[in-house]
């Protein structure tokens, strides 16, 4: 049954899974290594990630966003529902250019929220169906294939997973734009010097690779679904 036409023990589409895993591992190693490197470079301003975040937000006219510390490493994120910017242990109190860059990036999302940035709104609207698609697509497809309900469950599962892929794709402009906003404000406000801006760009570029890898992996998974079930005999 495994492979649906490719044989029980051998499924050539697994190569797509392997490629996705490799992309994810490479991107993860790149961002961790780059962040670790520039976490050792202290900013000339002496600002912490939290200090820089508050200044970036205020420079954008945002005063209603709370900045909180959250446990973990690179667990930083902006919560638009609660208007809360959460900075990880490795960013909140750190005075490194890496920490300031990450903090400013998250501020970029807060600015997007304030300005009703369209891709951010689209991504937010896709969250529920994307979560369902990434979690239930395979179970639905397998059940549909087993009971022979290709035209309903299998096709529905593929459509659900497509929504998860769309979420990953729309995430790319959201993340790239947040980084662009962050770099611009850090430069305009003088929080970081020119060389520090250069270093911060390296950190944010490495972080962007994780989103590119996630999108590529999702596309590969969708391609695998299509190859496995798209041309399957429906008789």
Automatic annotation (TrEMBL):
It comes from the Bacteria. It comes from Lachnotalea glycerini. The chain crosses the membrane at residues 12-31, 126-147, 153-172, 203-229. This is Peptidase. Keywords: Membrane, Transmembrane, Transmembrane helix. PANTHER family: MEMBRANE PROTEASE YUGP-RELATED.
